[in-house]
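Researcher: I'd like a candidate sequence for this fold, 462 residues long. If you have to choose between options at a position, lean toward the conservative one.
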């Protein structure tokens, strides 16, 4: 087979919609024959498996094939069918190999209480707790927010209010067998705390389980259910995609007439979402939920350490109706593979105009000026500089840079720092940084940038 044909073929594989392949093959007429020998098949096998990140299986030996493809008087049609042929070959190889089928079929599981999904590549989640359980304890409470029982590890997510935090908890099944879980993550604030507990190895789970929280709550019953498994995250709920960010809204019943909504993101590499606009503590356009009559419906989050991508609302009189959820924008953190380095001259005192443009993770940024000890020019015991920026904020753009921060870890030292953002746009205006007394230039590194990504993402929920 011609090398150029092969290159074009694999280029086209990336553009194919697999659901259309049978339709395409059934719609064409046979016109010419191309004979592929064993060497052609061997090369195609290696290249196809490599593109999918799989290891070729040498136990599979395809026979010499006489394969018919068509020419519809368009050069690309022949290449298209050749590309489909590569996929058919891959399917044939995989059908004969359980190991390859296991590699290809990576499914997703929704984990209630953890506000996330998990691929089954690392481990399979067997059971989850469908709804949180709250146990009142005197003037405080303990909430079992989520339970995940896997074939290799198991996790429990707890929150507490006005009760002590413990380093270990115990799960018991209906047969009375106990399992001790250790704390892995713990955060506390003003009498409230949240913690995640784990155990390695399999647990003999039963439909009904009990959590023992020391002597504080020796018996808190909860129920398990089989974990929901899907081939695609999109199959869990309604999905919207903007700017390369796919969000899936997953709904589930909660206490009483409440419905829980969890937003599951699928993100490009080196990106995370720090705000969905659900919590008012972030300076973003807030999420809105409305009924069929366009009346806005209030929603709420967990009072203790809420998941940022999750909220509840009361159905009220609209139990059979549809709801529209709108997320106008997202607060995003982008990370670079390698830190951006910025070096600028600094004055011995007073102001130095810079008027220089740099790039921070692909965003243009103007360095306007730098001032030394702007609040006290005669200060001598310590020095700091103030750098003024223009981040080219554009309210009409798809994404706006809001801020960035020096990566002090790369310098292996800490330093005093401060910043001021524009009150309207929230974009960084200037940054204060400590400098050595006799320094004539300053170098800093940036690994993360905080941006505003605009949608809107709109979901029709039931």
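Model: Candidate sequence:
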């Amino acid at each position: 087979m011609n090398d150029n044909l092969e290159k074009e073929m694999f280029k086209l594989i990336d553009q194919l919609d697999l659901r259309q392949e049978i339709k395409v093959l059934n719609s064409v007429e046979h016109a010419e024959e191309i004979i592929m020998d064993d060497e052609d098949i061997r090369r195609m096998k290696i290249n196809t498996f490599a593109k999918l990140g799989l290891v070729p299986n040498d136990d599979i030996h395809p026979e010499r094939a006489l394969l018919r493809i068509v020419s519809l008087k368009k050069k690309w049609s022949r290449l298209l069918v050749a590309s489909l042929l590569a996929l058919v070959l891959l399917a044939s190889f995989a059908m004969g190999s359980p190991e390859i089928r296991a590699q290809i079929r990576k499914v997703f599981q929704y984990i209630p209480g953890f506000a996330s999904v998990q691929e089954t590549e690392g481990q399979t989640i067997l059971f989850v707790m469908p709804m949180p359980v709250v146990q009142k304890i005197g003037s405080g409470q303990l909430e079992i927010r989520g339970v995940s029982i896997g074939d290799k590890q198991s996790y429990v997510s707890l929150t507490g209010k006005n009760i002590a935090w413990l380093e270990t908890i115990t799960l018991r099944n209906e047969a009375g067998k106990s399992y001790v879980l250790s704390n892995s993550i713990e955060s506390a604030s003003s009498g409230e705390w949240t913690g995640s507990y784990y155990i390695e190895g399999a647990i003999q789970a039963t439909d009904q389980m009990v959590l023992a929280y020391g002597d504080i709550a020796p018996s808190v019953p909860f129920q398990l259910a089989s974990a929901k498994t899907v081939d695609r995250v999109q199959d869990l709920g309604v999905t919207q995609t903007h700017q390369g960010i796919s969000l899936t809204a997953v709904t589930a019943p909660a206490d009483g007439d409440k419905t829980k909504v969890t937003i599951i993101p699928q993100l490009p590499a080196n990106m995370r979402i720090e705000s969905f606009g659900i919590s008012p503590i972030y300076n973003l356009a807030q999420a809105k939920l409305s009924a069929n009559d366009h009346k806005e419906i209030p929603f709420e989050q967990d009072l203790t350490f809420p998941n940022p991508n999750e909220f509840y609302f009361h159905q009220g009189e609209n139990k059979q109706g549809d709801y529209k959820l709108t997320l106008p924008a997202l607060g995003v953190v982008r990370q670079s593979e390698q830190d951006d380095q910025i070096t600028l001259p600094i004055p011995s005192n007073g102001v130095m105009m810079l008027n220089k443009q740099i790039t921070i993770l692909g965003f243009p940024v103007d360095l306007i000026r730098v001032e030394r000890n702007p609040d006290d020019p005669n200060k001598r015991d310590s020095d700091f500089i103030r750098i003024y920026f223009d981040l080219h904020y554009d309210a009409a753009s798809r994404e706006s840079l809001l801020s960035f921060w020096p990566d002090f870890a790369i310098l292996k030292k800490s330093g005093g720092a401060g910043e001021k953002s524009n009150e309207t746009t929230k974009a960084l205006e200037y940054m204060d940084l400590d400098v050595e007394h006799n320094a004539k230039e300053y170098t800093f590194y940036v690994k993360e940038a905080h941006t505003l990504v605009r949608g809107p993402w709109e979901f029709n929920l039931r």
